[in-house]
Each structure stands twice: as structure tokens, then as C-alpha cells.
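Weekly structure sync, notes
Attendees: PL (lead), two postdocs, one rotation student
Agenda item 3: pending single-chain targets
PL asked that the sequence for the first pending target be pasted directly into the notes so everyone works from the same version. It is reproduced below exactly as submitted, 164 residues in total.
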Amino acid sequence: MFDKLETLNDLLILQLKDLYSAETQLVDALPQMAEAAKDGRLRRGFERHLHETESQVKRLERIGKALEVDLDGHTCVAMQGLIKEGQITMSENATDEVMDAALIAASQKIEHYEIAGYGTAAHYAERLGYADAADLLRKTLAEEQLTDTKLNDLAKNYLNQKAE
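Predicted structure, written out during the meeting:
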């Protein structure tokens, strides 16, 4: 990709490629998570987030096209690890309630990773004068933050109590 990262623009491109890889991996993982969820609200939340994630992939593709950057060819190792950790969790022998609580914990780790990535990329894009890209990245950031809040509320106000 780069022989050497020399500019903030290089770093933005790397961040965009990483986010693109992360999101495309998540598109593949979310159906498994929805299937593993026993609580209907959690399952529907995963299904909604799948559709949202597909839109986020399209946003990243728009940004890549506008910046004339091919986002393919990079693998987000962090997302690979987070998804693998979630798959290990899903293979555990657990009660339905504990499994749902564990799925939320795994999902929030993913959301927090994405929040950090989108916040960073949005700042870089804004600093570099890519206003449209920054706006799209901030839109996705807001969606990721809202998803995290919904997961947190579901865990704290309902599922964790059932798992107790």
C-alpha cells in the first residue's frame, strides 16, 4: 500500500481501508450474531444493524470514489480478532440469558472499535478539507454511538438482570 506513511492524508487512506475491511467483515458476522441471540429485541437489533452496516459500507465506497482511493486489499486484523472472539463466545455452553448478555458484550467491543475509527477518520478528513467525507464519517459515527447506547440500555435495563 504505502512504502512509508508520510502525510495525514496517507493515514486517512489507511484508516478508511481499515474501516472498510472492518465493516465488510461485520456484514458477514452480524447474521450469525442475530441467529445466536435468543431475545427477540436483541435479534432484531442485530438485524437492523446489519442493514445499517450495509449502508455504512456504501458510504465508505462513496468516500473512496470521491477521494479516488481503492478501499479493497486491506484486512482489519482488529475486527478479525473481535469477530473471532465473538464466535468463541457463541460456541460456549451457556443459558440463553447469559448468551445474550455475552453477545452484547462482544458487540459493544466492536462498536467501541468502530467509534474510535470513525471519530479519528472524521477528524482527519475535516482537517484535510474533505468536508463531504467528514460529514459522511460523522454520520456513521453517530449511528455507531447510537447502536452502542441501545446495546448498553438493553443490557443494563433488561438482559443482564435476566442473566443474573
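Discussion points:
- The mean pLDDT is 94.
- The two ends are 48 Å apart (CA to CA).
Action: rotation student to compare against the earlier draft before next sync.
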